[in-house]
Each structure stands twice: as C-alpha cells, then as structure tokens.
Structures
1.
Amino acid sequence: MTNSGCILEMYDIRKEFPGVLALDRVQLSLKKGEVHVLLGENGAGKSTLMKILSGAYTKDSGEIFIDGNLTEIMSPAHAQELGIGIIYQEFNLNPYLSVAENIFMGREPVKLPGIIHWERLYREAQTILDSLNVKINARHKVESLGVAMQQMVEVAKALSLKARILIMDEPTASLSNNEIESLFKTILHLKQQGVSIVYISHRLVEIFEIGDRVTVLRDGKYIATTPIEQLTRDDMIRMMVNRDLDDQIPKVKAIIGETVLKVENLNVNERLKEINFELHKGEILGISGLMGAGRTRLAKTLFGAEKIKSGSIYLEGREVFLKSPRDAINAGIGLVTEDRKTEGLILDLSVKQNISLPNIKRFIKGGVINFKKENEVVDEYIGKLKIKTPSRNQQTLFLSGGNQQKVVLSKWLCTDTKIFIFDEPTRGIDVGAKTEIYQLMNRLTANGAAIIMISSEMPEILGMSDRILVMRDGRIAGELSDKEATQEKIMNLALGEPYEAAV
C-alpha cells in the first residue's frame, strides 16, 4: 500500500467537528527532500490536515505511514519525536520571554539538572537566527519585535527541532520581499539536506519558485496531486475554487465625493511625523510602504489607540479628539486589524457574539436584549458575506482564516461606520475569498463609505486604490494617482528615491 519513495503517506483521512465535516477521505504523500505545496481555499481543510500530522488533532479514521511504517501520532510531542515540525500561520510565542527562550522552550540546554545553560541557549539561538539572515538579537524579548520578525522566530523555532518533515503554514504572510528571499534560500538549503517540506500558501507566485508537487483540497475533499511543471496559475485556481476567476481584483470606480477625513501635521512621538492627507467619500486610499514604515501605527492612531503628540484630525470639517477606540467608533471609524486573531476577534465566543458585541446597544431596549432582532441581523451578514459556518452559534475559533476575516468585517458593517480602515485585509486569505473582499469594498464605496487600505500586496494596492500614499520612516514619502502608480514608482518612494528615476 505504501510508496517506497515517500517519507510520509496519509490515506483516507477523515475528521469531523460539531456540524462540520472538515476532511473527507483526504490523501497526501511527501517525498524526501521535496517541497510539496498544499493548496485550497480557506475552509478547504489544509490546516486541519496539518494539525493531524503535527499531533494537535486526532484523526477520526484513515492511515498515516512514516518511512513506510503505519503510525498513530498521539500528540504534538510525539510528532516532534517522529521528526515533524510545524510553523503555524498564527504565532505561538510568549511575548514576555526572550527570543532564545521561545526557540528552545521546553528544550533548554542545562549545566546541571534544573540549571539552564544561558550562554549556550543564547549562542545556539543566535546561530539559527543568523543562518536566516535576519537581524534579531536572541536576548531581546519577543514583544519588542514586529510581526515580520516574530514570524522569523517561528521559523527559527521549527528549524531548531531538526525536523525531517517541516510544515510551513503561510510562512511568508507577514514577510517583506527581502525576508521572503532569505526564507526561500533557507528552504533550498533544507531540501539539499533531505528535509521534506509541506508548504501552504495563497501566494501562487511563490509556488512556482519553490514547489515540486501540488496537492489541491476543496471543501474538505482531495482533488488532485500534480507536478508543479504541469500546472499554470489558472489551472491551480480552477482546481481550488471549481470556477474561473477572470478578474481577481475587480475594482469598480466609485464617484469620489467631498472630504470626509482630513489629517494635518500629525505627530505620534517619533514614530509618525508630519502626516498630512485627505480622504474622500467613495474613495479607496491605498497606503503602501515597507515593514516598519508606520502604516499600522497610523491606522491605530486614527482609531484612537495611539496617543497623538500634536496635530489635528477633522471629520467632515469638524475637529475631533480620538482618545480611545470607543471615540473612533462613535465617530464612525472602524478598523479591520492586521492581526485578526488577537485584536479583531474573541475566538472563544461565537460568530454571533463577535458580530453583535460592538453593536450591542442596537439590540437593547428597556435594558433587555432583543435576541430575535440580534439573530436576524447576524444571519443577514452571515448570508451577505457568505461566511461558512454551521450556525451563528459556532465558536469563531473553528472557522477558517478567511471566514474569521469576514466575521471581523461583519461587526463593522453592522455599525454606522463611514470610514473603514483595512489593515492587510486579505492577509492569509485564498484567491476566492480575496475577490469577495474586493467586491465588498466596491459595494461600500458605491454606497458612499470611504476606505483606507493598508497592504503589502502590490497587485492589491495597484488594483484597488484610487490614490496611493507611500510611507517611509514614519512619514508620507509621496502620493500617486491610480493612473500614474506603478510598482517601480511605489518601491522607489518606499526606499527613499524619487520615483521619476523608475520611469
């Protein structure tokens, strides 16, 4: 039954959660020293299959063979003993410990029983980090790092396990182009050493660069396994979504109206400096820039989560003082955060609770919650955004990344939000869900809403923006109209060069 050329084989894997058949007779094989890409829309079952392989979930039925031997993976610790390591899309780090402690947590080198060998701990952690070509001090606390650097710590942690089978779930979602290039070099080095990699990504361009074979899942079912050289990008999309996506960034030009937001000489400590711009009704204002340029800090400042040192913010011509997110919400500003897991959702609560919580006053009359009205509104947005959930009462924790993002969007759509701030709105979301998010943004602007869209995806910035602001070192480095904007001009501004040089 087993393929002698494979280090891993999974046959007829089935997994069911309450009300959801997540995997239905799925199969996957992995050869020694290959990068096997696992593709599928959000909710297709990719992460569930990998959690079974890594010991986080127990399969309901099916068989797993490692090195040709039938194996029952009992726990994450058992998976590690078998040489299986995993880098999850969402971080699993303790922010209050050092980078080195996170990398070797539970496996710290010791001088004597109970006494950690701290110098060896830091030295070995730094060696791994240096091999990734990232500038991270192993002694620094994780909380001092940005999202991209935290992702690289996760990579280092997995590499420290000396895994023979390495699972990478969206490892580049938060990385810059230079960091992605460095990661790919590491992947190539691992392949040459015989390490086998299961690679999950929604960035199809990456797959052709590093993939050897591709397995596609759809709606929890196995579709096909094909060598990468036999596939085109369109082939992959059709297999994933069972339809053609001719226009994956379906920007619809809205009627641009009056100014709804004006920012003058905004300063936030030394991190945002002399920020000036306007946002108009019906407009999508894209904000581009490299990691650490200040984009997310600007978003949080406009949402009242950062203290302003000086400067003014005007909404519809009236100066406002946004001292807290509640002030921003009351003023009609909503923020779809970059990190939906920790900042956008309460994962242990239901879909219904997450959608209605910011809007609970809407359902209260005489001190009593009108549950019928609450259910009707929640069901309306589950339908409008096509949220895949067995019911409104399903824990948000069990939804796929794309559907969790739709829950975040729903809670703002329920409010009287006039200005939407989208921070990396399609991070970690498949091509089908991306198109749905873009169509939603078009509907919002058509109805007169204004959108600030922060994105590291160049096609997204170029395809969806009416205007583009480029940030660098906490400042706005330049502004481009949708007609004049190109990738070269944006990158030159982000790097500190006049964009005319790219013409």
Note: Residues 498-503 have pLDDT under 50 and may be disordered.
2.
Amino acid sequence: MKPFDLDVKTAVARARAREPEIEAFLHTRFDQALAESQTTSGPLAGVPYGLKDEWETTVLPTTGGSHRHRNRTPALDSEVYRVFQGAGAVLLGKTNLSDFGLAPESTNFLRSTKNPHALERTAGGSSGGAAAAVADGMIAFDWGTDIGGSIRLPAAFCGIMGLRLSSETWPMTGSFPIIPKVVEWMCGQGPMARTSAELRALLEVAAPALKTGGSRRFEFKGAVFYTPEHLGQWPSFEADVQPHIERAIEGRLAPKSELPATSKVARVYGSLWASNLEHLLEADDTLSLGQGLVAALSSALLRGRLLNDRRFYPNTAELLLLMGVGRVTIYRNRERAMDAGQRVRDAFEKVWAQGLVIVAPVTMYPAPIIGRTTRNMHLIDCTMPGNIADATGLSIPFGTFPGGLPRSIQLLGPPGSEAFLLELGDRIQASSR
C-alpha cells in the first residue's frame, strides 16, 4: 500500500480554496502542477508537495522569506528539489517562513501564515508554511530546515510529524540564506508529513543523494525524560507521557539524566548566535555589517514605516538587535561560547552512549496568537538543546492543550538514529491511541 493518498488534483483544489485564508505559500504553480501530474513516474509519482522557500529552485523564486529578495531566482536547483522531482513528486509551490528563517513565527512583509486549527494563531516557524499546508491537506509533504526548532515546533503547533535529521549524517547544501560556517552544524534538514510511513518513504527516496555524512551504531537500552524548568501550560508532562513510554520501551525508563538545565542551554544557544552575529549578517551579501545593523534598528523601532523600509521584518530585527546587545556585552568571547556549546554536546553524547533516547516536550505552550510569538522567552526551551547537540529529533503529536490546540513530544537520538526513532514513535503512538 502506498503511504501517500493525496493526489495533485485534490491538493490543488484544497490549496486554491484555503490559501487566501491560511497563507501557507509564498509562490505557487498550481496549473503547472496539474499538467505535470499526468506524466510523472517514480516512487513518489503524482505526490503533491511543497518546499520551504529556503531551498533553491529555478522554477520559482527562492526568497528566504525576505522582502528584499522577493524576486530572487537562483541559477541552480538545490539537490533537495532535484531529488523529489526525480522521484516523480509534483511541486505545488514554495512555502512561507519567517524573514530569513530566524523567528519562530512564519510572518514577514510578504505573508503571514495562519494555523489551520485556529486562524488567529501562528503555525510556528520557521517552517510554518510547510506545517500549515501539510496539516490542512494542501500538500502531502514538505522538506524543512531546523536550526532552533524550525521543523519540530511548527509540526507540533499544527499537529503533524516532523523529523530533524542531524547535519553530521545529512549535511545541508543548496539553501538560502546560506548558514554561516561557524554555526552550520546546528542546522538540520528533514521531512514534514502526517504519518511515520510517509516520513519513511521520503527518507528512502532522499537518502541516496542527501545522506552523505557518516553513520553511527546506536544500541537502544532505554529512555530518559528531559523536562524543562518552566512547565508552562503542560505541568503534567511526565505523568501524561510516562505510561506510554514505559509500554513502548517495555519499562526501560532510566533515572534522571545529567543533561544541563534548559535555562542553561538557552543561554549557550544565545551566546553562540550573539558571538557570531557578524557572520550571520555577512551571510547576506546585499547588506554590509553596518547596513544590516542600521536596517535592524530601523525596523525594530519604526516597524517599516520610515520610507517603507522593509529590509528586515520587525520580529527578525528585534532578534538581531538582541544578538547585537549580547555581542557587545556578555557574549563577546566567541571561543568561550563555542566551548560551552561543545560541553552541551558532550552531555548529550554521554546519554546516547548509554543507549538512551531522550524524551522531551517539543514546547510547553500551545501555538501563540500571531504577533505575540517572540514575547514568550521560553517557547523554544525544549528545541534549542537538540540543535546544539545536533540531534536527530522526531516530533510526534500527543494529545491537545486545554482549549484543543495540538501538543507534541519529541524523541532525541544521536546522528543517524532516524529509523529507530520512527519505530519507537510508532510504538508510542500505538500506546497513546
């Protein structure tokens, strides 16, 4: 039985009906997709998909969610696009993200993606357009990127599955904006879909071309909880999840690990970005470092109203300015920040060396109201550690928050452990049904 049951005709009809409301896409090619669907062949023949608008494509612009780059068309296609086109999948469009993929909300000067479960709420970011389109039935899958939770968080907010693949095993190429070399190890890529069977099918197609790093052996011996200090709106996380984990792993739940507290990891994550701010701004060669800082200040203070200045969207500008403050105050020492990041990685490696999978919430909060996402300083407490550790991270729907919005857990394993995490995820989902 084929894992995908959504066809191009149905997907296009759904997208045309819902896109004006959801705003999941930055660019579409519905008519071309309908025509192509009649002639495709391969393991994903006729499967409608979207691509986060960070992946280079010559058939549609690649903007990185930036108003400055809204008409940018690259000269070459990314390997990600070539893989899925070669497998017979049919591209419906490029999905929305936050400006330059920085904020956990897919709102920019071009589009503002809504959560299909509640239109006043965000679909998350930066892969929010991807998650919303999959959740609403406009596409069967997307391929996202994740440098701070950008696959796992939108998947959780929208109630779908998302898989962050470790950059050690699945190195990234062909994305825009280019991730600075000094922090590219924190950025993973991976599929977003509705079921584990769909994720497996996508990995099988993608692995020959995209899984170019080394593999590790992982001997599973149990699981351990990693619960944040700020329990947010899910204070019963461990009590809710423990029975299902124990059934899925036959009771092998380890005592508390010695992983660093999420508040400490958040400071390390901030120090890595702040101490490398120059590299981040220099990754876009259309602005000098000075111009980038002035543009961020203008946007944060004037919200794009002065001379229609749309070089940065305000929430992106605010994050850049916070990094700038950190850069000139407490995070001036880049070497110290990198050493702290390595210590976090070492702590995770120690847990994995014991054969343990780490079980954590994706976030302790439901999807925020659009425009308020960056006000919650603890929103991505649970996703940042996976990026510093370069973990393989699987986001799995797990019930709802009070009020009915989706809630998810994540499994964090070492680089290359995606097949096992999917198997374990199936057992957890079967237990929680």
Note: The chain has a mean pLDDT of 95.
3.
Amino acid sequence: MSRQAQPATDETEDFDGQYGEENAPGIEKARPIPRISIQAFCDDNHTAEILQYAAEDRRLSKAHVSVHMGGIAAAVAHYVDSPTPNLIIVDSSLRGSQLLAELDNLAESCDPGTRVVVIGRHNDVLLYRELLKRGVSEYLVTPIEPLQLMESISNLYNNPDTDPVGHVFAFIGAKGGVGSSTICHNVAWTLSEVLKSNVTIADLDLAFGTTGLDFNQDPVQGIAEALAAPERLDDQLLDRLLTKCSEHLSIFAAPVVLDRDYDISADSCDMVIDVVRQNVPYVAVDLPHSWSPWTKRVLLQADEVIITAAPDLANLRNAKNVVDLLKTARKNDRKPHLVLNMVGVPKRQEITLKEFEQALDLKAISVIDYDSESFSQAANNGQMIEEMNSKAKATEKFREIAMAMTHRRDTKTEKKQAQSALSPLAPLLEKLKFKR
C-alpha cells in the first residue's frame, strides 16, 4: 500500500486559489500534531493570545498546551524542579548575546528529547545560525500567525518523507436520502483514477451503509471490527480489513447488519481514521445522516467537509446549521464545500441555486442534475457513473468536486471546454491534427 501521495498526472495540476480566501497560505502544510505536551512562556501578551488561539485549533486537539507569561526567565525558574515537556516555546524580546545566554540557562534544565522553538523580535541570520548550533528547533520572528506557528510545530513532528499524513474528506448529507453516499463513492473513485493515488473510503453508516453495494463487494470484515478494538489496529490488520476495489481504491465497508448494537465513541473514530490516513494519501469518510458526538468530531477534525443538499427548505435549514457550526469551530480552515444534488426533479418546487448560496453565504462547487436513469442503473450494476457511462453529465461533475476538494485543476477538462468555446469544429480539427 502506497504511503505517499503521488504527483498529479498530466490531466491535473496544483490548484492555484480559484476559491480566494479559502485557499489560505500554509493551510495544507499545518498537519495534525500528535499527542505531545507543549508549554509556552511569553514576554508579549499578543503572542500569548496567538498561542492560545492556535491551541484551540483542531490540529492541536490531541496535544496538551499550556501558555504562561514571563518569557525565558520564567521557563528557567519553572524547570528547575519540573521535568520538561516534549516542546517548549519561548517568546523573548532580548537581543543577540542576551538571548543566547538565557537559552543556555534553559538548556541546563532541559531533558533529552525536548525540543525548543524561539519566538523573537529580530530578523538576524547570524542569530538564527547561533540558535541552530545550540539545538533550537525553530526561530520565528514576530508578528506570527496561528497557521504559521502550527505549520512550524507540524514540521517538527510530521516528516513528509517518512511519516505522511493523508487528507481526510468528510461527506455528509444535509438530509437523509440526498445522495451524499453516492457523491462520496463516485468522487473517491474519480480521485483514485484521475490522480492515480491510493484512496480509502471509510463507511461509518454501520447499519445501512451502501459502500459494499455500490462497488459490488461483499466483505466479511470491515470497519466495525476496527472500531470495536481500535487499539489493535495497525498496518497489517488494516490490510486484512480493507477490501480492494481497483488498483488505487479500497473500501472500509460497513457490516450492514441489525442484530448487533453499534456503540461508537469519538475516540475510537479518531484512532481508526488516524491509522488509515497514515497509509493512504486520501481518506473519504462516508458519514450517516445522524447527529452524535463522534459524527461531530469527524466533521470538526476533517481536512475538508463536503455537504450534499437537495434544493428544498429542509435541506437549506440543515445545511445552514452545519455550515454555521463549522465556521464557528474551524476558524483556521477553509469553508465547507457545498454540492447541490438532484436538481430539476419534474413537478417539484425548488429553491434556486442563487437563493441557496445567498442563504448559506457559500458558493456551490458543483450542481448535479436529476438523472434517475443513470444513477439507478449504476447502483443496480454496482458501478460508478463514469464506469457505466463516461459521457454521462454527472461524470464531469464528479471530476469538478474531486479537483475542488484537493485544490487542483483538471486541465484535460479545461482544454476540452476551451476548444468547444472557440469553435464547434474544434474537436474535429484536433482529431485531424493527431492523424497527421
């Protein structure tokens, strides 16, 4: 099983910020921090506020962070009789030799394995080199931003060459029956085919999940076994529990039986998803339309959230509640992605796309028209839409969603659209050019 995301194929390229403010710099580099202890000692109140703000972010949710005032002197006094944590962050306004002298005093109390990050006021290359010689892990110059700080800590504990952390995409429906699972499965399959990177679908609808049906699989074991004993899950057990559907796509299927109770804890979900994301570049989590502590935890901890909604009032209300929660709890993350599905059902009164977007203050990344024939046939065949009919309208929509989630551009589709816009004869002329 591949442990690294592979480069984009010639059909895609890095996404360059089409979605404006949502493509905040550094947001992809600040990866989740493991369960470590972090203690900070600040000279400046504003820096202390930045540290406290960062401590409340989802990426540091597993770390134990405490922020104190007093700078390096307070840290030296504190560690005379106390063991040092995994990471010490010191904020100081001292210059050159004074700063180095204080850090030397701190070093005398540091236990082996403790790392130190210094936040200073002076952009001095010589000082930076002296700090590195003394074993300081990082030197940041104020003013700093929360994401910059989180990225620096992430770089200390997440080595992209040896310990990759995959991206988690959480799919949830604004209402039951709006097609969130279908969107999740088709987008995950498209992602695996277009990027040629390994993708795992985790079906957390344990009683009624459709991942096995949609991929024409009937696994004996799956995600329920992992959730029952998450502490036992490792790379070897994960390989046994996953069901491989194609070269790059595997599913963590739900058991879909009703003769057992499913008592899922938020911590169990965290542990299982953590193991999966350590093994593949992309994890698509298919969430049921139910609200529980673990559902909320998965949504808040995911790298990207995709909300599928149908254009009616109940969907609008529910989608707005989810969007408002995510905006409040995930201040350092991009906005969730909105997919409007089953648009244009005959004789149904619908809320327009413009009204839906205005109410949510969110642009839809894709609008999928109602197409009962294609979707029902694909479901009955145990196929994805593009497998069954590559020319179906929804095929292009799933590519749109996959590229928007991963912040890449589908250059192959863009070329086709550009050719069509130039002339209706462009596709024919392109074929003639290749024949020469």
Note: The chain has a mean pLDDT of 86.
4.
Amino acid sequence: MSTAQPVLRAQALSKSYGKRLAVDRLDLEVDQAELFGFLGPNGAGKTTTIRMALGLIAPTGGSIEILGQEVGSHRSRVLPRVGALVESPALYGYLSGRDNLRVVGNVLGGVSHKRIDEVLEIVSLEGRDRDRVRTYSLGMKQRLGLAIALLNDPDLLILDEPANGLDPAGIVKMRDLLRNLASSGKTVFISSHVLSEVQQICTRVAIINHGKLVRVAPVAELIEAHGEFEVKVDSPHDLAAALHLQPWGAEARAEDGLVITSAPGGSGREMIRFLVQNGFEADAVSPRHKDLEDIFLSLTGADS
C-alpha cells in the first residue's frame, strides 16, 4: 500500500440491467504495484465491473476512478494508461507476432520499434516474433495478448482470466511474468477462476457474490487458519481421542493421517509440551493454513 491515491477506486459502483442488479454498490480500492485478485462465481458481476473500469459500459450508479480520474468523463485521459487482456486475445493468425504488435501500435500511435522489441522481451517471445501466430501455442498467444496490453506502457493492467486454457508450464510462465510486472511498479488487477494461482501470486483479493462485495483482505490473512495446528503422529485417532478430553481440544479431528486441533493458549510450543507429557511422539507440528478455494466456497457457496 504505497500511494495515498489508489490506482483504481470504485465507490458505490452499481450496474443494473432492467430489474437485475449485476453490481450492487461496490466499494473497492487497488493500490500501486499490487497484484490484486478479483474473484467470484459465474454471474457474480466480475465481467460487468471490468467493463465499467474499461469504459465499455456506463455505471447505473456510483463511480469508478483510475489514477484519480473518473473513467466515464475522462476516458481519453484514463484509458491510454490502462492495458487490458480480456479472455482470449483477438489476434491475426496469418501475421507474425511482431506484425500483430505493429498493427496495434499503428492504431495506438506513437509506438516505436524499440517498444515492440521491449514488450517481446518482457513476455519472452523475442525468439518467435517472426513466426506466424497460427503456429503459436495457447500460452504463447496469451503472452502475445499481454504484450499488446503492454504496448502503451500502462500504469494499470486489467487481466480477465490470464491463465485461461494454459498448461502447467504456461501457467508458471504467466505467474512469473505477472510477478515481474508488479515488481517493476505496475498494478495488476486479475479476474480468475484459477484460485491456486491467485493464492500464489496475489497480495490481496476481493470476493464478490451476486454483485456485492463479500470480503476484501490480504491473501495471507484469508488462508491463515487461526489457532489450528496440524500434528503428524503414528496414531492420529488415539491422539484425537486424548485431545477430546481437553477443553481446548474438543474439536480435534483426524484427517489424512494428521490431527487437526487447537492448541492450549493457541501456542505450538504448548501443543508440543502436551504431546510429550502424554506420550505422543510427533513427526511434525505446524500451523494449519486453508486454501483460498476453501475460503472462496465458504464465502460464496459456489461450486468451483
């Protein structure tokens, strides 16, 4: 959280289609150089929010600002500072990767050959830039789409499903690329269903459901299971039974060869002391963390 002025700010942002309220008084702030995840089930209002941020549709109520300027009334100032990749990029398969960038650069105006070289290097396509796009893998096409979004050297990147359809190697490359972009000072706003990736790369996330903001928090805070520990022992069911006799261990449970339990005073050290005093030899005692997917499902009731 490094700037007084958020890079993106939504205030009471709303959008209705007839009687259906797609986005319901959404309040959100995204700061400079954040990798920010925007999550929600299908139909939750994510795409509608992104379309309003990109000036493609107008809000019914409230406002959305980018770099302190309201998008609707300052589109010509705001949008040149934004790069977007929305699902699968529109590319010319019969042209090379470099020529695709030239075509878009000509439309934008003022994009130099040097800048094209720079974005090809950023997305690691410099060795394949003269090959026709029809020969590219899906991951390469996604990276070329990101290169197009970077042509105007934007302050804010809005990416809708950037890992869409990628194989594991492609996902790793995209993950490293997005981290590098944030490290260089760019703000990256990601809408994604790949929650395991969001958990690995995003610093904060917002979760919406039925158009309403359900939760916004640092990822580390969300996945920390307060006060619970995982204990690895040879006899997990015996340990769970012993813990049930303690007032702090009433909810202990054996799962997948581990015992999940609270600890006396919430302390791992006290947990270890209890184990030793009661004759249990533990191979490991570690704080328990939840997956972002578990948190998402509990907050939205959605199917993954």
Note: DSSP finds eleven helices and 14 strands in the chain.
